[in-house]
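Example for tutorial group B:
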């Protein structure tokens, strides 16, 4: 499984230690990890506003101006899927950690065995909760979570699968690709199928997406898109 992991820790030594444990877990479990470290909640939020695609969040409690619990509450307002794991030396915030549906609360110094057990649970939850699209490209196969796809574009005998931060090019028709998607995807024009989760504005002849891109839509499609978004959200 492809998993994006964020480690939030203001102690560089602790961050390096946890990152190393997570990296070893990924290799042992056969996952492909993209691990990013952040020294503060503010640094994480700066990137998260643009790319809301973190899968597992390992965070300390005491971090500068915004603590880990406040950050978790802010993220939970719009993201129920991310797996949150608190790693801290302070047991006082344990009750608040469970309020934000934290997967687990680990005390420092965290052991390899305990962390790996929790990470196994996180990966299982991710696999169970969301459907993925099998994407074959450049002699590789990846499984992309549907929620990460912004839109799919037809290009002759290929489709371009546009996600937050990456675009995949796969030899397949748009019609066959659509059959593997969920109800949040809608073909808005002959060459474009859009994930309605990421629509921010509906205009007469186009849609605006969360990443700032504008996608053309067919004549008369704006009303149908509005109805679908009311039904889904």
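The residue assignment follows.
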């Amino acid at each position: 499984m492809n998993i994006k992991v964020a480690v939030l820790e203001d102690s560089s030594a602790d961050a390096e230690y946890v990152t190393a444990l997570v990296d070893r877990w990924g290799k042992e479990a056969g996952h492909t990890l993209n691990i990013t470290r952040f020294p503060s909640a503010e640094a994480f939020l700066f990137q998260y506003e643009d790319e809301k695609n973190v899968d597992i969040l390992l965070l300390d409690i005491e971090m500068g101006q915004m603590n880990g619990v406040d950050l978790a509450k802010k993220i939970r307002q719009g993201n129920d899927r991310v797996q949150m794991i608190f790693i801290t030396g302070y047991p006082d915030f344990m009750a608040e950690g469970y309020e934000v549906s934290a997967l687990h609360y680990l005390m420092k110094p965290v052991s390899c065995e305990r962390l790996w057990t929790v990470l196994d649970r996180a990966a299982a939850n991710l696999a169970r909760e969301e459907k993925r699209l099998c994407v074959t490209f450049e002699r590789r196969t990846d499984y992309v979570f549907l929620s990460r796809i912004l839109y799919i574009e037809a290009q002759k005998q290929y489709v371009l699968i546009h996600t937050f931060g990456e675009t995949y090019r796969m030899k397949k028709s748009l019609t066959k690709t659509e059959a593997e998607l969920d109800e949040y995807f809608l073909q808005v024009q002959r060459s474009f199928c859009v994930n309605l989760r990421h629509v921010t504005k509906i205009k007469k002849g186009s849609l605006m997406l969360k990443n700032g891109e504008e996608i053309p839509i067919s004549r008369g499609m704006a009303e149908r898109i509005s109805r679908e978004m009311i039904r889904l959200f």
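The first strand starts at residue 2 and ends at 8. Compare this with the pattern of hydrophobic and polar residues in the output above.
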